[in-house]
Write a structure and sequence with these properties.
- There is one protein chain.
- The strands form two sheets. Strands 2-4-5-7-6 form a five-stranded mixed β-sheet, with helices on one face.
- By secondary structure, it is of the alpha+beta class.
- The protein folds into two domains: about 240 residues, no CATH class; about 140 residues, Heat Shock Protein 90 (2-Layer Sandwich).
- Helix 7 runs antiparallel to helix 8.
- The longest helix is centred in the middle third of the chain and has 56 residues.
- Helix content is about 65%, strand content about 10%.
- About 5% of the residues have low confidence.
Length: about 475
Amino acid sequence: MIKLKETTKIELWIVTSFIAISCLFSLLQNLAALGGLGSAFDIRTIFNDTIWTYTLFSHLVTTVFYLLLALYVQKEFEKSDEKISTAVFFIYLLIHICFLAGFISKYFIILLSIKLMVIYFTRYKQNMPNKVYSEATLLVAWSMLLHACALILNAHPFIVAIFTFVSPLAIFSYIYLVYIQLPLIIKRKRPKLTYIGVIFLLTSLSSLLIVLTSLLFFSNTHDHDNVLGFSTAINSIAQFIVVPLFAWNIYKARNNKKDQEIYALKTELGKSDANLNFLKSQINPHFLFNALNTLYGTALQEKAERTGEGIQKLGDMMRFMLQENVEDKILLSKDVDYLNNYIALQKLRTSTSPEIVIQTQIEEEQPDDLAIAPMLLIPFVENAFKHGISLKYPSHIKITLQTKNNTLYFDVHNSIHQKNESDPEKQHGGIGLQNVKQRLALLYPGRHELIIRESAKEFFIHLTLQLREND
């Protein structure tokens, strides 16, 4: 027993009553035509007349199809996580065949078209795998509605022929190309050549189908040959040019939208992965700052100025990581301050070795309106100090940074020394150059240029980055 909603019950009562009243009026008109009103007639003549049989059958077919749409098709489109049955397409095909055969009147086809539109707009929209059925339903509804209107308005036979033959076949080809063929063709070595072959086959088959349908249903109509020639010509244009181009553009546009969504997700994941190591440092931040302040005070009391300076810069760097690094974008000046603090801290460590030369040419004042993704530059400097400094051999590092016309120019040039396995910096480096490359590709696509050159003894990177105001 099918459980129906109250609204569905009311709808079915109204529609079936409307069809029954229409059937009654049609029978009365037939009765009057046979002379049954106001004159004597033989009751057997009424039931032997084929018009009566056709009228009853036509209204019965309309009722059956409406019930199928209301009780079966609509239920299929309300599914939240199941695929719609392919029987839905079969029902649409039967409706169209019965309409062409004259078993459904042009007025009732409008009723069925409106029902299809109601099904489309009340469907479960989140069920994306059923999108092909939804799109086909809307296209079929509009095609049948316009076809019926053309008949009611007594449009030119050529116009009627377009909705009779060309429109249904174009809908089929569009659905077939977008949802079945193009996902397969696009993966082949020669997709365009294969696509043209499929289009040619569809054009030939559809033209043949028009000829057969015309001979079957419309062979006795007026001006049959001209209408058939016109329909075949328009169908060839639609199938070989209009539909393929439209289907190709729709498919590419939808794929681009999916790529943008995937790109956005990758961007978020990239930013999260790049910041993961720094977010770990948020454990007990108050304890860490208190400890650093204690050490800084002790260093000043003992007149250890270099130690106190190093602790102060380390505290500034940690504050930056905890407060600024969690933002999507920060002022370029703040990122440069962090860079300077890191370099200064490393200079304290290496200042006792005369064979280590560290040169920096970093503009002190940066534009106040330029923003950058945090921690984007420091990995290059970390890498330079990790591989370019040796307390045993001559070493050099040169870092330059300048901005001009909203463009950042950043160079790092350093010597290379292989680290021992016991060296802690071999195990605990920066984020890593690979990670920075990914972040640049995700955050600044088409707005950066990264050049990396490496020889046996030297390593060089050049980064050009186009920044934006309050990016």
